[in-house]
Amino acid sequence: MRKTIRQELSQMSAEQLLVQATEIRKELFNLRMKRMSAPLKDVHISRKLRKSLACALTFLKQKSL
Prior knowledge:
The chain is elongated, with a radius of gyration of 13 Å. It has helices at 3-11, 14-37, 44-64. By secondary structure, the chain is mainly α.
């Protein structure tokens, strides 16, 4: 993951991080549904989304402490 994405996530508030995590989860769900119906062209997108979700949840946890 690029440093700029991490920097953007680190500057977000807890509420924004929660919204971002929800959006990423929705995108992952949609990708799973597309993968069931037909093969994906860009397979690496799901990996990037999972990593960005983990990063968002990590920053959210840090902000709550």
